[in-house]
Write a structure and sequence with these properties.
Layout lengths: L1 H12 L7 H6 L22 H7 L53 E7 L6 E2 L14 E7 L6 H11 L5 E3 L2 H6 L1 H9 L3 E2 L14 H19 L6 E2 L8 H9 L3 E3 L3 E2 L2 H4 L2 H15 L2 E6 L3 H16 L3 E7 L7 H12 L8 H4 L8
Parallel strand pairs: 1-10, 2-7, 3-4, 3-9, 3-10, 4-5, 6-7, 8-9
Helix pairs in contact: 1-7, 4-11, 7-12, 10-11
This protein binds zinc ion (ZN).
């Protein structure tokens, strides 16, 4: 991991210089118009000042206003079980997080699965049927589009209060704006994947542009988090193409669709978000739930939603990756260069990014 320490150190050192980089880069892509996709979430405009400021407003409910602390005790790393989730559901349920949970009435994590993403398996019945690894009553919590001030820390606080772990799909650009928040997600032992660089509709891009979006997203998240994320990818708007799923398969990156979409980005009301999730869960009985830590209403809703999950007897499954994603050095270098604002006549990339371990 020395390579990542290197990158993280360089990125951190450049953070003051690069403070405006999000704005510089944000002009390139604007939000896409609503597509045919059922799960469109194009209202998110990563380059919009208004959207950023509105979303960063303080939370409304007193119980959710506490920000997560800046420092967290180092939790012991749970040992992932060896079985690949692509062939999973065998293991006996155990309350894997209960032993170090301070809240005896917490929802907790019932089962930890290790996902082997070799060959790019897809998960989530909205688009994939092959690897339905959840048993009846089991739920996976996923949060997209962060990291974001106030909202992401509130989500982390709610998850911690119930000793629950989740999977986050951060946007690369957001991670460069708020690397300290992404590091909080990692420090709390949640799983992070990636969700493109700028949240464009990849189906409307050329193959080369779409690949750049995917790879820049992973590299940006890796640099901001200080370590490579899981090889877990979610398409913006769940808008995928056969060419891109084939590319991800070749890259050994798993694709995460959803079983249940909360539609929190449309509802924008905590009570409606809770009703949306619980009614769909009552009907389906299990599933990978798609929510957004970017969304204020979700951050407010989460404490109550988790209480209701427990009251109804649902069990939380936490996904980890068998191996971290292998980012591509040219994208790492490009992202680092973008974040530092270096020009072509600055130090050679090789003096900034040095491969210490190429995995050979
Ligand atoms: Zn999204």
């Amino acid at each position: 991991m020395g390579r990542w320490t290197w990158l993280a150190a360089a990125a951190t050192a450049a953070i003051v210089l690069g403070i405006g980089i999000g704005w510089m880069l944000s002009g390139k892509e604007s939000a896409q118009p609503a597509p045919e996709a059922k799960f469109a979430e194009w209202e998110l405009t990563t380059g919009s000042v208004a959207a950023r400021m509105a979303a960063a407003a303080p939370l409304a409910r007193p119980q959710a206003t506490q920000s997560a602390p800046q420092q967290f005790p180092q939790a012991p790393t749970p040992s992932p079980q060896a079985r690949p989730a692509a062939a999973v559901p065998s293991a006996a349920p155990t309350k894997v997080a209960a032993a170090r949970c301070a809240n005896p009435d917490a929802l907790g994590v019932t089962r930890l699965v290790a996902i082997d993403t070799t060959g790019g398996p897809g998960f989530g019945s909205e688009q994939f049927k092959a690897y339905d690894f959840l048993e009846a009553g089991e739920v996976v919590l996923t949060f997209d589009d962060g990291p974001w001030p106030n909202n992401t820390p509130a989500v982390l606080a709610a998850l911690a209060a119930q000793c629950v772990k989740a999977t986050f799909f951060p946007i690369g650009k957001h991670s460069t704006w708020h690397p300290e928040i992404l590091k909080q997600v990692v420090a709390r032992d949640h799983t992070i994947g990636a969700h493109t660089w700028s949240h464009v509709n990849l189906a409307k891009k050329t193959l080369a542009e779409a690949k750049d979006e995917i790879e820049n997203g992973f590299s940006a998240v890796a640099i901001s988090a200080g370590r490579p994320p899981a090889p877990f990818f979610r398409f913006p708007g769940l808008s995928q193409t056969p060419e891109l799923t084939a590319y991800l398969a070749q890259r050994n990156i798993g694709i995460f669709s959803a079983d249940l979409d909360s539609f929190d980005f449309k509802l924008k009301n905590p009570d409606k978000v809770i009703t949306s999730v619980m009614s769909k869960l009552d009907k389906r009985g299990k599933g990978i739930i798609l929510m957004h830590d970017f969304q204020h209403s979700t951050a407010v809703a989460l404490p109550t939603l988790l209480q209701q999950l427990k009251a109804k007897g649902f069990k939380i499954v936490h996904m980890k990756a068998k191996d971290a994603v292998v980012t591509l050095p040219q994208y790492d270098a490009a992202m680092l260069k973008a974040q530092t604002g270096q020009t072509a006549d600055a130090r050679p990339t090789a003096s900034v990014v040095r491969t210490i371990d190429d995995g050979q």
